[in-house]
Amino acid sequence: MKGNSKIYVYGLLICIGIAAGFWYFLFRNQKFDYDKDFNTLKDVSQKISEARIKEQEKESVEREIEVLKMKLEYAREKLPTEEEIDKLLREIHDIGLQARIKFIHFVPGKKVKLSGQEYFKKPIEMKVVGPYHQIGIFLNKIGGLPRVVNVQNLSMQRVVLSNNQGVERATIKAFTYIYPDKPGDKKPPPKPKPKPH
């Protein structure tokens, strides 16, 4: 029986070796599939995370764009359009009259396109005479207009009148910006009314 038991032992070892080999190759293939699936899952998870970050960045950029659009619209409201410039010039002149100053010179200059900008700069040259305080009121009121009017240069000189009273002569270089009309902003001309027959 000793010989038979050796055969059993060898047979058992061979069976265990075959089972171990089969198990090894089967497990190795499964491990390869597992590693492949794990790496795929890892890549997909990373792509999802990146997509979420990009989505958050996109939402942040969209919010920033909305804020910038609101700021642009606010700036547009502050800048007169081509159509409104005459009204603005009349307002400036009327404010001067209300402040009891006398205009010697009131000349709007030609608009100048600013490089890299959508809008134009329009200079306004003024020479006025009046009491110091009244000129200050005038400057304060044009600075408070709903449309942007900036005083770029101001020089004042005391002038003595014939009755020994003094007034100021001010040379003012102001400017405003003109925002070009958007194509949809211009109103169509009114239709002529039909003549009664």
Quick gist of this model?
The protein is an alpha+beta fold and 197 residues long. The chain contains 3 helices and 5 strands, in the order H-H-E-E-E-H-E-E.
Structural description of this entry:
This protein is α+β, with helices and mostly antiparallel strands and 197 residues long. It has 2 domains: 1-78; 82-178, Ribosomal protein S6/Translation elongation factor EF1B (Alpha-Beta Plaits, 2-Layer Sandwich), CATH 3.30.70.60. It is built from 3 helices and 5 strands; from the N terminus they run H-H-E-E-E-H-E-E. The chain has helices spanning 2-78, 85-98, 132-143; strands at residues 102-108, 112-113, 120-130, 149-160, 166-178. Strands 1, 2, 3, 4 and 5 form a 5-stranded antiparallel β-sheet that branches. Helix 2 (85-98) runs antiparallel to helix 3 (132-143).
Main traits of this protein?
five-stranded antiparallel β-sheet; alpha+beta; rod-shaped; 3 helices; 197 residues; 2 domains; 23% strand; Alpha-Beta Plaits
Q: Approximately how much beta-strand content do the residues carry? A: 15-25%
Radius of gyration: 42 Å
For the record, give the distance between the C-alpha atoms at the N and C termini, rounded to a whole number. Answer: 139 Å
Specify the number of helices.
Answer: 3
- Tell me the major beta sheet: 5 strands, antiparallel
Shape: rod-shaped
Number of strands: 5
Average pLDDT, to the nearest integer? Answer: 81
In CATH, the architecture of the largest domain is 2-Layer Sandwich
Helix-strand category: alpha+beta
Helix content: 40-55%
SSE order: HHEEEHEE
CATH secondary-structure class of the largest domain:
Alpha Beta
| Stretches with pLDDT under 50, minimum 5 residues | none
Number of domains: 2
Oligomer category: single chain
Q: What fold name stands as the CATH topology of the largest domain?
A: Alpha-Beta Plaits
CATH homology group of the largest domain: Ribosomal protein S6/Translation elongation factor EF1B
